[in-house]
Amino acid sequence: MREENKPIGLGLAGIGRAGWGMHCPELEGRTDKFRIVAACDVEKSRLDCMAERYGCKTYRKIEAMIADPDVELVSVATRSPEHVPHALLALEAGKHVFVEKPIATSYAEAKKLKTAAARSKGKIFVRHNRRFEPAFQHIREIIASGLLGKVYEIKLRRNGYGRRDDWQTLIRCGGGQLLNWGPHIVDHALRFLESPVAEIWSDLKKIAAVGDAEDHVKIVLRGKNGRVVDLEISGGSAIGEPTYLVTGTKGALTSDEREIRLRYLDPKKKLPPRRPKAASPPLGAFFGSPDALEWIDETIPVKSPPPGCTGNGDAIWDHLYDAIRHGKRFPITLDEALEVMRVISQAKKGTPFASRP
Fold first, then answer.
1. Structure pTM?
2. How many helices and strands in the chain, by DSSP H and E?
3. What is the rounded average pLDDT of the residues 135-145?
4. Can you give the pLDDT at residue 286?
5. CA-CA-CA-CA torsion sign (334, 182, 320, 307)
């Protein structure tokens, strides 16, 4: 088999919620592109599951798995504080690395990856897989079309209520919503902002989770272009809001993961000119003269994901394969991922939830 068509030998580090529950099932539909040749975890029972299902080699030490000559790509899906150390080991060995989010627990730590990647024969790729969610991509297309006019504010929400009690509620384990959902939604926010960040405001709280990390996050970003993105991630919100709310000068939309509701001014109709009047309006007309606006209201389904994809962002694997085997540009740059971590670290700065050594 020619090298450019050969499946990539993958070593999976971390057989947990991400590794076993996400990476493995996503890879099962891509056996022509990836082959799980090795797995690493500290728990033998999890390695036994990998060996039984995939017939792969298993390791208790990540150094041993990285040294395996059949491992071309190391997929880092260990606990958050281990992402940078494990990625550095793989880069030092000249292996390609696919890093699960968060790529680090702080911006300062994340910058180590850029330095190491510049010295390594291997390349580093970041798993911001929700960049490929159909709703997110569809909404960006609508914004770019100009249908809503000049978009000036976007609200992003991931809300629920849960008394969570796993390791992702503990600061020492890299827990908290900012390092859990945060990288995905901050990445969305920065893409929607379409401008360098001019200002960051944040408020973090612990509401329902039982650990010591934040479970309620509010961040407001203002771009140098004047656009505002207001994002909220909450594990303490009993009533939710639309996942997306986009407001522009000619219309707006709301959306969940399945459908998009639009309201916009008919683009075929030119608005008549209006001028402000300093005189008092007639009694009963407290808001000036009537303005007959022709609104179009419609609800459309979110576009389907590409063939072979589930819609949960698993298309990222196809981009990863093309980047490694065919030298195509990977759509998520390391600098973009570093900016996500810069915003997260800035949002935590000065709070009780800041990462601790």
1. 0.95
2. 10, 14
3. 97
4. 65
5. negative
pLDDT level of residue 207 (50, 70, 90 thresholds):
very high
**In contact, 18 and 103? CB cutoff 8 Å:** no
Give the C-alpha distances (Å, rounded to integers) separating 58 from 174, 196, 217, 237. 26, 44, 38, 41
* Phi, psi angles (nearest 5°) of residue 323: -70, -40
| pLDDT tens by residue, 209-231 | 999 999 999 999 999 999 999 99
Q: Regarding the domain with residue range 132-310+341-348, which homologous superfamily does it belong to in the CATH classification?
A: Dihydrodipicolinate Reductase; domain 2 (3.30.360.10)
Q: Is the pLDDT of residue 357 over 70?
A: no
Answer whether 322's CB lies under 8 Å from 279's CB.
no
Closest CA to 317 of 120, 100, 103: 100
Element of type H or E holding 141: helix 134-145
Which of 194, 192, 185 shows the shortest CA–CA distance to 157?
185
Q: Convert the pLDDT of each residue in 156-168 to its tens digit.
A: 999 999 999 999 9
Q: How is residue 272 annotated by DSSP?
A: P
Query: Rounded distance, CA 153 to CA 140, Å?
Result: 13
Provide the residue count of the chain.
357
Residues 6+ apart with CB under 8 A from 242: 155, 157, 254, 255, 256
User: Pseudo-torsion of CA 125, 127, 130, 133, nearest 10°?
Assistant: 60
DSSP letter for 80, please: G
Strand-pair category, 244-248 with 251-255: antiparallel
User: Tens digits of per-residue pLDDT, 277-293?
Assistant: 888 877 776 677 778 88
Q: Which of 135, 170, 148 has its CA nearest to residue 311?
A: 135
Q: Is the Cβ–Cβ distance between 114 and 334 less than 8 Å?
A: yes
* Block residue for tokens 């986009």: 246
Q: How many CB atoms lie within 10 A of CB 276?
A: 5
Of 105-109, 144-148, 273-277, least confident by mean pLDDT is 273-277
CATH no. for 3-127: 3.40.50.720
Region 226-252: what's the mean pLDDT?
Answer: 97
- CA–CA separation, 81 and 85 (whole Å): 8
In the chain, residues under CATH classification 3.30.360.10 are: 132-310+341-348
Q: And the tokens for 43?
A: 């728990």
Nearest to 225 by CA among 338, 132, 332, 143: 143
